[in-house]
Amino acid sequence: xxxxxxxxxxxxxxxxxxxxxxxxxxxxxxxxxxxxxxxxxxxxxxxxxxxxxxxxxxxxxxxxxxxxxxxxxxxxxxxxxxxxxxxxxxxxxxxxxxxxxxxxxxxxxxxxxxxxxxxxxxxxxxxxxxxxxxxxxxxxxxxxxxxxxxxxxxxxxxxxxxxxxxxxx
Length: 169
Hints:
The protein has helices at residues 10-21, 37-47, 55-59, 72-84, 100-113, 123-134, 161-168, and strands at 2-6, 28-33, 50-52, 65-68, 88-91, 117-118, 152-153. Strands 3-2-1-4-5-6-7 form a seven-stranded parallel sheet, with helices on both faces. It is α/β, with parallel strands linked by helices. It is globular, with a radius of gyration of 16 Å. The protein has seven helices and seven strands; from the N terminus they run E-H-E-H-E-H-E-H-E-H-E-H-E-H.
């Protein structure tokens, strides 16, 4: 599986280390997209993945899945283009979905393009849900918790429902 990463920060570095260096996934990160050219070049050299500052060049690669590991703002700018290019997508900055209209638009686009959108569970997802909770969403409507959202999957957490409610309400 060919994997692309959007972002050049700590999460991107960790994913590159786990996937390319320690081979903890069935695939390889072949490309990194980001704005920080200095960090992008360092990651590229260290983990043998091409670095791009041009989104279209990055998305024209034969990527099976793209992992957004940047910021909520970056997710809002780039994830729609990823789905437009019929790439499966992991959204790490799930706070981007506090804009319900954006969530609905992306869901419709993913269904039309036949792509999947995955949301992480655990610490990253919980931080995003906490941000979503601040925007007025309630338990059962948070995208990482609502089983009715088609095309978006989640792994059941071992935490109790009350732990989730405390973060998302």
